[in-house]
Specification:
CATH class of the largest domain in chain B: Mainly Alpha
CATH superfamily of chain A: MetI-like
Distance between the termini of chain B: 61 Å
Shape of chain B: flat
Order of helices and strands of chain B: HHHEEHHHHHHHHHH
Largest sheet of chain B: 2 strands, antiparallel
Oligomer: heterodimer
Order of helices and strands of chain A: HHHHHHHHHH
Helix content of chain B: over 70%
Number of helices of chain B: 13
CATH topology of chain A: MetI-like fold
Largest interface: A-B, 90 and 84 residues
Helix content of chain A: over 70%
Radius of gyration of chain B: 26 Å
Chain lengths: 295, 307
């Protein structure tokens, strides 16, 4: 065989393998949406789940997932922002900084089960917070911090050096330059990073099983006092999220319509992730167009 | 006069603000460092209790096959042989990485060498979606499609290493692909130009030049994929069958470190031996993830590309 034929053959093989992967993705998403969407109805999305009967919904789990997402972002974003600013704008080149960078890398590669178990040990048991939304949010913060910090740092790094010099030349202090000049310009990148991390948080379950718990107590959606145990806003109640719910009904399997409920819940999860992904892309493009005046 | 003197000898408001800002930012960074140290410390102290408090020998823990921590054998020493889980974890990790690598290489080559513009535009979202699908959804699909298919094709229950491998294959594929794309893009353009100018075909250029120049990047990408596979808990737990037995073949029920942790932790009492043994498994997971990290660093140092 001559070189040209081998070249054609290799290209064909590569094309074939790529086709297989695309097919897998299409089949995967198609399967989940086709089997799941028929179960998704207003009733399914709003009614509480059932343990032994048919016809349970995912209302509480959906609310728990969203509430946990908001709490996690509230805790992790300020820390990630501070750490990102320090690492990119202030950190001197010395062993302390490089140790911290290694630590962040280690944290980002830790399995989420280990992070969840650490949260379980420290918050659920030592600090006696019990299985609660707060413990879950803190565990998810640990899980989310390294990636978010790195994205903040990258967004800061993408701001041209000239902007920094201009700020300093106007007599601003470094902090004022960061807050007044650099941060607004890095904001689109940071927002995209937050939305993408929201997708990850929304689907995470392994870190939550032993921190936010696997039970969903009945919620009273007319009670908005955060201190009352039946209030949806109470951060100290155990809360099973959507992802944990899918895992639990599949591994315990006492629910008669478990596969229907998990198909529906999977479809909702996938849709949420798709929405997060596309909105991050859309927002990124839109803001990019605005600040660069390109079409 | 007093005013001017004060302005000259005292820090201005902006300087003070800068100091506070820097302190706050440093505190946030410090917090992350502290967090990592405390995770390492707490998991290590719990995990080592099996060996120091309950006097299980490390060698027995790593090589014995009998996992039943609440029981003791006839000599009175507890049955904590973690070998089945260790074998399970390593086999799903290695098999899925081996299976995913050719596909990842093909994807990455397609995006960088064959159709750089259209390929990237089309495949980038594919990779992002595969990363974005939550692991429980992979587990659920594995349970409803992969397990029955394996059962009808190969017999047995369908639960086992093979199903775990197939599910993990899809999960590590995007990780390996996206990292390898980055390292292919880092191969300098003149490498390709030089090869093509010598009359090589595109495949000859890819195979003889680009692939070889990017081998460190490929290894790093595979290790990252393996780290993800090794630490993945729920998707694997749902399809592997959860039997703490040494797997005889690819289709007999098995278990991994993560699957035993997720199912067992809730059923044991803090501070007892069965619980400590689980923390030792968590410690192995932690040490392995540190190992993967070290290997990546080592490859990164060795394989810097000449520009």
């Amino acid at each position: 065989m001559n070189a040209k034929k081998i070249d054609k053959l290799a290209t064909a093989i590569i094309g074939f393998l790529v086709g297989v992967v695309v097919l897998i993705l299409v089949a995967l998403i198609g399967y989940i949406l086709v089997t799941g969407l028929p179960h998704v109805s207003w009733h399914f999305l709003t009614s509480p789940s059932q343990s032994f009967l048919k016809g349970g919904g995912i209302g509480d789990q959906l609310f728990n997932s969203l509430y946990l997402l908001v709490l996690t972002l509230l805790i992790s974003f300020p820390i990630a922002l501070g750490a990102g600013i320090y690492l990119f704008e202030y950190a001197p080149q010395n062993w302390v900084t490089s140790t911290i960078r290694v630590a962040i890398e280690v944290l980002s590669s830790l399995p989420s089960v280990v992070v969840g178990l650490f949260g379980f040990l420290l918050f659920v048991i030592e600090f006696k917070l019990g299985f609660s939304i707060l413990s879950g949010a803190i565990a998810l913060t640990f899980f989310n911090l390294p990636l978010l910090t790195r994205s903040v740092e990258n967004s800061l790094a993408s701001v041209p050096k000239l902007q920094r010099e201009a700020g300093l030349a106007l007599g601003f202090s470094r902090w004022q330059t960061v807050l007044g000049v650099i941060f607004p310009e890095a904001l689109p990148g940071i927002l995209t990073a937050i939305i993408l991390s929201a997708g990850r948080i929304f689907g995470e379950a392994a870190a939550l099983i032993y921190t936010a718990g696997q039970s969903a107590p009945i919620l009273n959606f007319s009670n908005w006092n955060p201190l009352s145990p039946t209030s949806p806003l109470n951060p100290m109640r155990p809360a099973e999220t959507l992802a944990v719910h899918i895992w639990k009904i599949n591994s315990e399997g006492i629910m008669p319509d478990a596969s229907a409920v998990s198909a529906g819940a999977s479809a909702v999860l996938i849709l949420a992730v798709l929405i997060f992904n596309f909105s991050a892309r859309w927002l990124g493009n839109r803001i990019y167009r605005k600040v660069t005046a390109s079409k | 006069m007093e005013d001017i003197k004060r302005q000259l000898t005292h820090s201005s408001k902006a300087t003070k603000q800068d100091r506070y800002g820097k302190a706050i930012a440093f505190f946030c960074t410090f917090l992350i460092g502290l967090l990592v140290v405390s995770i390492l410390y707490l998991v290590a102290s719990r995990g080592l209790a099996t060996f120091f408090k309950d006097h299980v020998s490390v060698w027995d823990f790593l090589t014995k096959q009998n996992w039943n921590p609440s029981q003791v054998d006839k000599n009175g020493s507890p049955l904590v042989g973690a070998l089945p889980m260790i074998v399970g974890s390593f086999s799903v990790t290695i098999f899925s990485a081996v299976l995913a690598t050719p596909f990842a290489i093909a994807m990455a080559l397609f995006m960088t060498e064959i159709e750089p513009r259209r390929g990237t535009k089309f495949l980038q979202p594919v990779i992002e979606l595969l990363v974005g699908i939550p692991s429980v959804v992979y587990g659920f699909v594995g349970l409803t499609i992969v397990v029955p298919v394996v059962r009808t094709v190969f017999g047995g229950t369908g639960f086992g290493i093979l199903s775990g491998t197939l599910v993990l294959f899809v999960m590590v594929l995007p990780t390996i692909t996206s990292m390898y794309v980055d390292s292919l893009r880092a191969v300098p353009r003149f490498y390709r130009e030089a090869s093509l100018a010598l009359g090589a075909t595109r495949w000859q250029t890819i195979y003889k030049v680009v692939l070889r120049a990017s081998i460190p990047g490929l290894l790093t990408a595979i290790i990252f994929g393996m780290a993800r596979a090794f630490g993945e808990a729920l998707a694997v737990q749902m399809v592997i069958g959860n039997a703490s037995l040494l797997p005889h073949n690819l289709i007999s029920p098995a278990s991994t470190l993560t699957s035993v942790l997720t199912t067992g932790m809730g059923n044991t009492v803090m501070g007892t031996l069965p619980n400590n043994a689980l923390w030792s498994l968590a410690l192995i997971l932690l040490l392995m993830s540190l190992c993967f990290n070290l290997i990546v660093r080592y490859i990164g140092k060795k394989g810097r590309m000449a520009k």
